[in-house]
Sequence to fold (225 residues):
Amino acid sequence: MAGYDRKRNCVRPVLPPPGIHERSLCANKKPIVFPFAVVEYDLLEHTPKPPHMEDWRYDPASVRFIKRLGEKEKRETLERLRDPSVNAIFGVPVISTRGHYIMAGQGKRSLGTIQPSEVSDVICETADGEWKYRLQFVDATQTTWRLTVTDLTWRYYCDSQRRAGKPPRKIAAELTRLLATSQVYLRVGLARGWDEHPDRCYLQITGVYTFPDYLQGQTFADFAP
Fold:
């Protein structure tokens, strides 16, 4: 989860372990933190660690929902934030060996926005007993990328389709057609290292936004299990 302040600085609110729980994204059983919501935070301490330069500790009690952007404002915001390509986001070249990543300790930022020239494939598959969702797309430099989608809303949307009995292959085909006929923006970010690769920050898709809106105004809370 991340956003932008009035000066267009990217801010990723963070908390010490165990981190931010999903229930904190809601208040009075309604979502208050979701894409294109305007939310107030009291930021306490900037805690950058390259490439995750956007991290800020915050006061959990301070979070307050202000408003939700309209469709025109959403599109204008994404256009203002748009980067020319995936490789232009991080300030260092992406390494593409068994996935796509940059090394921990390098890079000037960990989040960016691109408009793909083509989304060629939506993938729904199981790995290690869990459902994984990926997108294959081409950016403006005609580079092809295949990245895991960590966007909570996208994942919950796909999960809800499976729970309704729709075969994963059909979900993937329908979403591929939808993205092919929509104006698409993708938020691309960097994961943090883990035990197997503590020095690698792998690329992932943290947001999928379409015009028309594939969610039809709904949020992650409408698809939560």
